[in-house]
Amino acid sequence: MNYLVDEKFNLKHKQKTISEHRPRILILYGSLRERSYSRLLAEEAARILEYMGAEVKIFDPSGIPVFDNTKSVEHPKVKELRDLSLWSEGQVWSSPELHGNMSGLMKTQIDWIPLTIGAVRPTQGRTLAVMQVSGGSQSFNAVNSMRVLGRWMRMITIPNQSSVAKAYQEFNEDGSMKESSFRNRVVDVMEELMRFTYLTRDHADFLVDRYSERLEKK
User: Fold this and answer.
1) 19 domain residue, yes or no
2) With b meaning 16 or more CB within 10 Å and e meaning fewer, what string describes 47-67?
3) How far is CA 160 from CA 113, 131, 143, 195, 196, in A?
4) Cα separation of 115 and 124, whole Å?
5) For residue 109, how many C-alpha atoms fall within 13 Å in the half-sphere facing its CB?
6) Which structural domain, as residue segments, surrounds residue 155?
7) Is 10 among the domain residues?
8) Closest CA to 86 of 67, 64, 59
9) Residues contacting residue 29 through CB under 8 Å, at least 6 positions apart
10) pTM of the predicted model as reported, rounded to 2 decimal places
C-alpha cells in the first residue's frame, strides 16, 4: 500500500512558464502615527526593492475596519487589501513592537486577508519578509509573531529579517533611513526577498501542493 504519495505527485515537476515581468511586492505597515517609523521603514524597503527591479505597492491602512469576519468584508479598504494580496508575488510586513508584539493594526490587516477565496489562496506560495521597529533596545518579538502568521498563511517566509532599535534615531528628516548597520540589514533582507521571489514565483503551486488536499478533492 502506497500511503505516502499518490499518482498525481511527481518530483519531476517541470516549469511551464518563466515570468519576465518585474517581481510584484506588496508592503504592509502597522502604525497610523503622523511620523510612523514602521511606515518609514516600509518606504525605505520600497525604494530599495524598486532599485532592485521590483514593482512595489504599499497599502495605506488608514480607515480599514477592525476585523469582524463578515460584516465589513466588502468594505473598500478590505477589498483593496484583498486585491493587492492576490496581485502580489511577495510581501513585506513592517510593524512596530507594542507591548511585546506586533501592533493591532498590523494584525488587523493580516486577519483581513482570507486563507481562501473559492479555489484561490491570496497568500499561499508567496514570499514574505518581516521587519519591525522598536522605541528602545533591539527586540524580535514582533518579527517572531509575524513569522508564525506567515507560516499559518502558507507563505514562504525568508530566513533573514530586520529589527531596528531606537528607530527615532535611524531616519532623516525627509524620512529616508540613515546609513547604518540597520539599513545594511534592510538591504540584505530585500535582496534575499528578491532572490526567493525569483526562485519560487513560477513554482508556487508545486511547492505548496498537499497530498491531503488532493484526497479531499477526489
Assistant:
1) no
2) ebbeebebebebbebeebeeb
3) 23, 9, 10, 12, 11
4) 8
5) 30
6) 24-217
7) no
8) 59
9) 36, 38, 39, 41, 42, 58, 59, 61, 94, 95, 106
10) 0.90
* Residue 60 within a domain: yes
Q: How far apart are CA 90 and CA 197, in angstroms?
A: 6
Based on the structure, what is the number of domains in the chain?
A: 1
Secondary-structure breakdown of the chain: helix, strand, coil percentages, each rounded to the nearest 5: 35, 15, 45
Torsion of CA 162, 98, 177, 170, to 10 degrees: -100
Q: Return averaged pLDDT per consecutive 10 residues of the chain, 218 residues in all.
A: 52 69 97 96 98 98 94 95 95 97 96 81 92 94 96 95 96 97 98 97 85 80
Which position has the grid cell 506560495? 125
Query: What is d(CA 16, CA 52) in angstroms, rounded to the nearest whole number?
Result: 25
Q: Is residue 12 part of a domain?
A: no
CATH number at residue 187: 3.40.50.360
pLDDT at 119: 64
Backbone Cα Rg of the chain: 18
Measured at the CA of 158, the angle between CA 81 and CA 78, to 5 degrees, comes to: 10
